[in-house]
Amino acid sequence: MIFNDFKSLKKNLKKDFSKLKKIKLAILGDCSTQLISQALRGYGYEYGISLEIFDADFDQIKIQVFDTNSDLYNFKPDFIVLIFSSEKLINNFYKSDEKENFASNKVEEIKVIWNTINNNFKSNIINFNFYEINDSIFGNFSNKYDKSFLYQIRKINFNFMDLAISYNNVFILDICSLQNTFGRNFTHDYRLYISYKMVFNIDFLPIIAKNILDIIITIQGNTKKCIILDLDDTLWGGVIGDDGINGIQIGELGVGKVFSDFQSWLKQLKNRGIILAVCSKNTEEIAKEPFNLHHEMILKLEDFAVFIANWEDKPNNIKKIQSILNIGFDSIIFIDDNPFERNIVKTMIPDICVPDLPTDPSMYLDFLKSLNLFETVSISLEDYLRNKSYQNEIKRNDMQSILGSIKNYLKNLDMVCINKPFEAFFIPRIAQLTQRSNQFNLRTIRYDQKDIEVIMQSDKYFTKYFTLNDKFGDYGLIGLVILKKDEHHLFIDTLIMSCRVLKRTMEEFIFNNIVSIAKKNNLNQIIGEYIPTNKNLIVKDFYKDFGFEQKNNLWLLDVNKYIIKETFVISE
After folding, report:
1. For residue 198, what is the domain's CATH number?
2. The model's pTM
3. What are the respective helix, strand and coil percentages of the chain, to the nearest 5?
4. How far apart are CA 230 and CA 234, in angstroms?
5. Is the predicted pLDDT of residue 417 greater than 90, yes or no?
């Protein structure tokens, strides 16, 4: 998804939104926000989302939030966007008699707004931070003088970040960083503020809209998980097959620095949980030489979950990588310096993200950073271990090909599962699974950490999480169930499992556990619901396969007739 211009977004407003996913969003600002609303709705079409937007009147943030009879309360949004302008902030600062306490007072004021929203709505909050205005009253001395506006606005933005850590449903849109990236002359025009109370340039509105939507779709479970990389003139300068190990450009000197910095950035993404893979037209042995022999390479072979170098076409090789990783094409980014290769991949695999790199390698990094491709709303231990986990998966597949029989293979994996009611330690990962899991997810209901805490404390639910490890390594927490109990039955509110462990008989192990819970509590019936999406078709027959009978839109199982399924997973 690359930036669109405002004119093309307005054209989208005339298109048919009727079949798109509907999301309710409210925008509250102390500046004019009508054009932001248009850009948002137009960009929503690009993401397959129909945004129903409540755009509050100018400077009505407190009125809408604190008055329970306001239009905001009648609207009941899924997301609330809060926009506080630096123009209004500086005017209030000049009037303040406590300039050294201005930042603390402002953050406390916004905290009250967040708390009020959380007490009255089940909404996620997207709050803009403050773009910087240097009023030059104290020159560079502003940076060490706590009564300067520059000092206070920077303190607000830092305290914003600190405060947001305590709110699982609050997300900071870093408008300050966007201003630094694109330049104030591009992002703002003071004349527009004077005439129309608009604080952002029209050309900047699509970038704002994209960043808001990046947060929304990430919360909805759509994230980029993998980067597939070309090698020659992408990870290093030159062609390894022609130039040899000493001829490629990498390291601290000259243009090699460009590629070293690019690799360092990729390494940080890998450490954060983004899967790295290689797809190169090359002889495999030669393609691996720089990683094994060049002492200035930042990335090593062990940093890649999958490494494919051959002379086959790249679309088919990418499909092999996707099959190995078992993730959607829309979760993959393909980076290649060659326009021909990029275009053929775009044509053959439309769902994949293929950025059109600049021709100058020195611009690769800034360009890719500006696209904000790696938005996330949470980080867990499993994210940091993801590449290793996929490397272990390849070893498992190799063992399967050696053993032949699926049963023999599964028996020899030595799979062990810890399964317990939800615990506080795992709340972030449990919430993350509900937010990110799309394929093995029967109802695709999203919960944040606060929701999970409420469910844990309620006597209306049974909960269980499931971890898995085998002889090759630890998968971590890979599944969960939330079961709502009634007098005679259990309703499967949520049943999620990582597709990494699909067909390992882990699903049988989990469902045997569900039946066990029902029997221990004298509940004779289990009720399931399958809510289809574009991504969870792999579980459309799940209830049928486990002996349920369909009745209208629900699936019913007589617990007493259930036959325990064979599984090769044992409980620790």
Report:
1. 3.40.50.1110
2. 0.74
3. 45, 20, 35
4. 6
5. yes
